[in-house]
Amino acid sequence: MSWGGKTEKLIAPLGFTILLLLLWEVVCRAFSIPQMILPTATETFAALWTFRAVIFDNALVTLWTTVVGFGLAIVVGVALGIGIGWHRAIYSAVYPILVAFNSIPKVAVVPVLILWFGLGAMPAILTAFLISFFPIIVNVATGLATVEPELEDVLRALGAKKMQIMRKVGIPRSLPHFFGSLKVAITLAFVGAVVAETAGASKGLGKLMLDAQAAFQVPVVFACLIVLSVLGILLYAVTALVERRYTGWAFRSQQNL
Questions:
Q1: In CATH, what class is 47-251?
Q2: What is the pTM of this model?
Q3: Which of 151, 181, 213, 238 could staple 139 via S-S, CB 3.0–4.6 A?
């Protein structure tokens, strides 16, 4: 990829973001939208600067609970995904149960977690885990279960065992599916953590947003939303970099774009 292409990829989203912020400011001022409904971009960033210490302190809590829950989702998701994708019969038997479990709204589970573990970080961690592990399991299991039977037959004919086929072919082939699921799961983990914080927590951006809403400080609420979006983008970018490092072969067609 040329230097000009890299610069374009950086400038384009930055320019579009600035355009959206300008549009936000113009619309709020042109239609005289009350601050209680939608603060302007300048009011939001002013609140972000004024309450930067409090927002930063609570953002660290949300980031920590999200990363821990996301890490648990990776460990459990990969382990269960490999187990389910090990054999097509297991895949057919367990997959419907996972779909049924994932269909349960996690918002309904949060009060139960608070009842079991009390107020604090644990319900947020578990909610982030519960809402983000399903895409990982499904994608890992799908990547392993979709190895061509003909390829498996050829490898067995050459003397390869099931574990060798899984290690040499199945797992490498499932890596693009795995990293694709991580980029989805990290955003879901933030959703789970913030939902749990709004339901019952002593700290975190979700708790701060709830308190700011109760105090009618709407600019602080939007400032927290901006911080959440920035944190999500950063973790997404880290995941994408790791994906490029370990699955570069899957992006060869994009190298010269």
A1: mainly alpha
A2: 0.84
A3: 181
